[in-house]
Design a protein that fits this description.
By secondary structure, the protein is an all-alpha fold. The protein has helices spanning 27-43, 56-71, 76-101, 104-120, 122-137, 141-171, 173-188, 195-202, 206-230, 234-242, 247-258, 260-280, 290-299, 302-328, 336-360, 374-387, 389-413, 416-431, 433-448, 452-482, 484-499, 506-513, 517-541, 545-553, 558-569, 571-591, 599-609, 614-645, 649-661. The radius of gyration is 29 Å and the shape is globular.
Length: 662
Amino acid sequence: MTSQASPAPPAQAAPLASRPARLPRWALPLAGAAAFAAAYLVFRGTATLPHDDDAAPFQWINDVRAWVDANRNQSPIFLFFVNYVRLFVGGLHDLFHLVLQGPGWAGLTGIAAGLGWLTGGWRIALLAAAGFGSFGILGLWEASVATLALVLTAVLLSLAVGLPLGVWAGLSPRLRRLITPVLDVMQIMPTFAYLAPMVLFFQIGPASAAIATMIYSIPPAIRITALAVEQVSPAAVEASGSLGATRWQTLRKVQLPMARATIGLAVNQTIMMALSMVVIAALIAAPGLGSDIIRGLTRANVGLMLPAGIAIVVMAIVLDRITMSAAARTPHRTGGRTRWVVHRAVAAALALGGVALGRLLPAEFPAEWVVRFAGPVNEAVTWAKFSWYGVTDAVRNLTTEALLNPLQSVLTGAPWWLVAAAALALAWRTGGPRPAVVAVGCLLATALLGLWQHTMETLTTVLVAVAVTLLIGLLLGVAAARSPRFAALQRPLLDAAQTMPAFVYLLPALALFGATRFTAVFASVIYAVPPVVRLVEDGIRNVSPAVVEAALSCGSTERQLLWKVRLPLARRAILLAANQGIVMTLAMVVVGGLVGAGGLGYDVVSGFSQRTDFGMGFAAGVATVLLGIMLDRITQGADTRASSRTPTPTTDRRNKRKMRTA
């Protein structure tokens, strides 16, 4: 008999002791921070780039402006394109202003009430009538009409370009990939950055303000419209094609009607963006409510700003409710033909009645109905400053001395190459080589513009504001996710906060803390907290219930469930919240240049107010965009890395097979 060979023994797994030890995940970042600290202590004060008001890039930009001014009526580009665009936009604004002024204050209020009734019933009609009436009671009827005319001009232009482009992007993935980076940059850019190019080409006035507002408002119109068309049911599109409809018929009869509600949201967001921009456009002589706010900020006069701020908030709420109600309405008749006819007859009666009343009453709002409260407001602000001085001064000094000054000292006192190396390492770790190259390239470009020191000052304010924003946002978001009652109480406050234009947040900050650097931080925090809270709350709520139940069945406490399960699984939402917080904080910090924030914001404001500083202001706007792109790439890279680490069913099965093999 032949002896059979015994089977070979199974391969033994290598002893754990012989396997190479792996460093903890926190070891490399800790070593990098230690190396940065050591290099800072050794090279502190060397290779710094102090600010120079007469830097070569500033002078070059001033020369460009001088050339443009000298050739505005000679160059073919201006004669046959730029000047005609300016005249067309200016004429469109004048037409809107004339149409809105025609019915008088009573007529326009009646028309607004009729639109409210038509879109949302008696509640929206009452809100619209009260809102438009409040413009006159605040003594700001003419300024409110001018702001509304500018908003309508910019929104019409934005939708005329944005809606067709958004539909095209929704139908063409190639176009969507092509324009997405452009839209990303446009949404990263702070509002101030849009103003300098407009002044250079279109001069100051309503035309340049409307064009700047139009460009600022286009991204949400394109993005949301593309999303609306893209999300139309493929089955409905295929059914239309199978019935012999052409692509144009399918678009007009199927895709656009089914995307109507979401496109209405695009219109709503475009209006909200335009309303926030026209206030800032007052820096380039835009008419309307923004001029009162700018004067109040420069004089630290809260009583002058408050009525205009209230009017802007009221206008935003009225326009928001009307457009959202219009988007939510079904295009079909509901309740029978009689009810449909009566509904429209009431809306027409409100509008025509207001116009008729406007013919009988004076065109100007009655002066005896105006409520003046600038004096009492300034007295209340003075009382609050003195009464709460101990608390506000302690908070301001603690934040300034413990956070702002030390961090700014590090960033401005470190060598430029060390700060660039730290940004490169951070971006490389969070996003990889490509985002790292983009981030450090943008940072070094600010040095080439001659604005390194002021960029570091602005970066200091942004980092402190973002840290405080994320802390508050995490606390409120977690509380809302764990308590439906708290979420229900918090939601109306978040809705109102996200409706207000950015400038309004400077009012309480200036009233409490005066014109200081901390004022910009405080305003940035209350401006950026609402979206951060919403994103954190949604991220935690969307954690899989099965995972939560499994953790509870293993005996996890609520604290362990939060720290070990909910927050790690909501990491993508938290990183997206950080990204949005950075973008919104950067925009607000630049606006804070009007209230003593310094840095790039002050340079931009100075460039608009003094012609000799135009080059510095223009370069500061570009540097702000570069800083925003750098921070955006770092946080977006962290989001991408987080999504790549998120376990999927495939990776789960692969990990289980590895465990069984081991």
